[in-house]
Design brief:
This protein is α/β, with parallel strands linked by helices and 445 residues long. It folds into three domains: 120 residues, 3-Layer(aba) Sandwich (Rossmann fold), CATH 3.40.50.2300; 157 residues, 2-Layer Sandwich (Alpha-Beta Plaits), CATH 3.30.70.270; 116 residues, Rossmann fold (3-Layer(aba) Sandwich), CATH 3.40.50. Helices cover 42% and strands 21% of the residues. It is built from 17 helices and 17 strands. It has a seven-stranded mixed β-sheet with strand order 9-10-17-16-15-13-14, with helices on both faces. The chain has a five-stranded parallel β-sheet with strand order 2-1-3-4-5, with helices on both faces. α7 crosses α8. It is elongated, with a radius of gyration of 29 Å.
Length: 445
């Protein structure tokens, strides 16, 4: 079975009998394409995408100047390394070739084994320039090339797109240096589950790419979530870890209860869609990752299973918001303006009415004024009942009140505390912030 990680590609341009050199390179683990003229090599560069070009200096009349400039002008990232073979008696030629743009010169005749090892050293240095400095993993450039290889060469592959949730708030609370340690911890978790034939890259910031075989993908995603959740509480104070959230501070005194850092993973694989490029593969995996973000805590979503279009058509995809507000005029204003924003809105004026609506209508977000005097319990108790019910705890809860005790609001379960009076645009901005990753799972994937 072909490897997920592609063989390094060598383009060998030679007009001499050089089968011994090409054979030695193949035995060293390289994929070698031999071409006997520069024009043919130029026309095939984008197709072959070699990692290194090995060329005899006497093939070109200008010491390779025009050919080397052509190579450096192509949109191939990373650019191929250029190594020229120069006869040992042509010392002046060595200088001219380097001046023309070659990265290195190898004198011949030379042991074919040494040539192979020199090539290997160049490719090793090239690889070392494309690593993420924080984790030492291959970067996004390498990841894209490996994905292209999977698309063109392999019949079986799956990718996991992985990132951290709530890292920004963690950085604001604990500092970016500890945030970097959290990213390194995720990298360590990913390294701990890598098999010999898997590929792992750190594309950017907290964005990782994991490529494996399709029959391992979902089980791998589940194990990654489990291992990360086991170690992540160590990065918090005992107080934050025990209560399960940190307090984010916003503008104008807003306080938000932010869950602990978790991970979201999106999974896609060969044959699940009609992929034509690495960009399309990454986008599909990211779409699944955004779905995973709509769940609580570390989780993953795969496009292995899909709903039928008839099932999708029966569901209303608009977000449902419940406004619980005793002031009738304020309730009407909120309802009208939220509907103009595209939400489906219901309103309630007592805790008893609210509790019934919450259980029967199941909103995605609740806007709650705690100063409710109608009903068998108050707004704070309603908040506790919502968050203590395993079937309702995932509903976003915004408490808006004149009560200045934000700690009480957060301890009762509020995801966001918004003191009155507030501007509607501020409220809508915060609602969009909470709901932007709340993509409902019953859409057509």
């Amino acid at each position: 079975m072909p490897s997920i990680q592609p063989q390094p590609k060598i383009l060998f341009i030679s007009n001499e009998e050089s089968k011994v050199i090409s054979l030695s390179l193949e035995q060293a683990g390289f994929k070698v394409d031999v071409i006997d003229n520069v024009n043919s090599a130029e026309s095939n560069l984008k197709l072959l995408k070699p990692d290194l070009i090995l060329i005899y200096s006497n093939i070109t009349s200008d010491h390779g100047l025009n050919f080397f400039q052509t190579i450096k002008g192509l949109e191939i990232n990373p650019r191929p390394i250029i190594v020229s073979l120069v006869h040992e008696d042509s010392s002046d030629e060595r200088i001219e070739v380097l001046r023309a743009g070659a990265d290195d010169v190898i004198s011949y005749p030379m042991s074919t084994k040494e040539i192979a090892f020199r090539v290997m050293a160049h490719l090793r240095r090239r690889q070392e320039t494309h690593v993420n400095l924080l984790t030492g993993l291959p970067d996004g450039v390498v990841a894209s090339n490996v994905l292209e290889n999977c698309l063109l060469e392999l019949d079986d592959w799956a990718i996991l797109s992985i990132d951290l949730d709530n890292l920004r708030i963690y950085n604001e609370t604990y500092g970016e240096s500890l945030g970097d340690q959290m990213i390194k911890a995720l990298a360590a978790v990913l390294k701990s589950v890598v098999n010999n034939d898997d590929f792992l890259a750190h594309r950017d910031s907290d964005d990782f790419l994991f490529i494996t075989r399709s029959d391992r993908a979902e089980a791998m995603a589940e194990e990654i979530c489990r291992r990360f959740d086991f170690i992540s509480p160590r990065f918090y104070t005992k107080e934050d870890a025990s209560r399960g959230y940190v307090i984010g501070v916003g503008a104008k005194g807003m306080k938000r209860r932010v869950p602990l850092v978790s991970i979201s993973i999106g999974v896609t694989a060969k044959g699940r869609r009609n992929f034509s490029s690495a960009v399309e593969i990454l986008q599909a995996a990211r779409d699944m990752r955004y779905l995973a973000k709509s769940k609580n805590g570390s989780d993953w979503v795969s496009d292995r299973l899909r709903l039928s279009s008839s099932e999708s058509a029966r569901s209303d995809k608009r977000i449902k918001i419940l406004v619980i507000e005793p002031d009738a005029s304020m309730s009407l204003l909120l309802r009208d303006t939220l509907e103009l924003e595209g939400y489906v809105v219901e309103a309630a004026h007592s805790t008893d009415e609210s509790w019934e609506l919450i259980n029967n209508w199941r909103p995605e977000l609740i806007l709650l004024e705690t100063e409710l005097f109608a009903g068998n319990f108050d707004g704070f108790e309603l908040s506790r009942k919502i968050k203590q019910d395993v079937n309702l705890a995932g509903i976003w809860l915004i408490i808006t009140t004149k009560n200045s005790d934000h700690m009480k609001a957060l301890e009762c379960g509020a995801d966001l505390y918004l003191p009155k009076p507030y501007e509607l645009q501020v409220l809508f901005s915060e609602i969009r912030y909470l709901l932007r990753t709340r993509i409902r799972s019953n859409i057509l994937l």
